Amino acid sequence: MTELEDYNNKIFDCYKDKYDHFQLGFFKDNKILFVGQNPGNPFNEQTSSDSDIVQSKKVFSKFESSYFELIKNSKIGEFISEVVGQDWNSISFTNIVKISTIDNSIPSQELITEFFPIVIEQIKLLKPKIVVCLGKFAGEQFGLTNFYEEKLFDKTYYVMSPHPSFLAKSGITKKEVVRLKKVVLPRAFDIVNVDSVNYYSNEIII
Known about the structure:
Layout: H1 3-15, E1 26-27, E2 32-36, H2 50-56, H3 64-72, H4 75-84, E3 91-95, H5 109-126, E4 130-134, H6 136-141, E5 151-153, E6 156-161, H7 164-169, H8 174-188
Parallel strand pairs: 2-3, 2-4, 4-6
Antiparallel strand pairs: 1-3, 5-6
């Protein structure tokens, strides 16, 4: 068991009786960590089919696999797949706030204060090469103000992208995906010759 797994297990045990909808995320690798606002309501438009809704009933659990499948089959997952391809073994995912909110409303400052230290510790233990904040809410917690502008904190790069739900309203454009890829892929995969990367491919081609 890694330090991060041990930490997540301890945090889950502390919160499991306090909140019904408590989710710490999933952690596959430390190349790219995507950070969202908070886990969505399992029965909202986040899910894209009836089977996803059935699956989402099991999402708020200690086990990462259920949440992994829900995210991968959501609008957020479609966006992430545009960036990294269908092989998600290089990424991890968590949220600023670890519980859902009514109608997926913006979490209160009280909730941010309660949960943000957990995110910081998860990042400290995971040591991601780059953190991708999905939307302004997530980005602002790390002091990010401009989309696609990267900042370096304690040997980890941070970048903010428009939220996938916002992009989905007008269609996720290749232009937005490529802009994010040009920041994320060189940091995640230690690419020196950035001009050698095919940023327009649906898969990571380095």
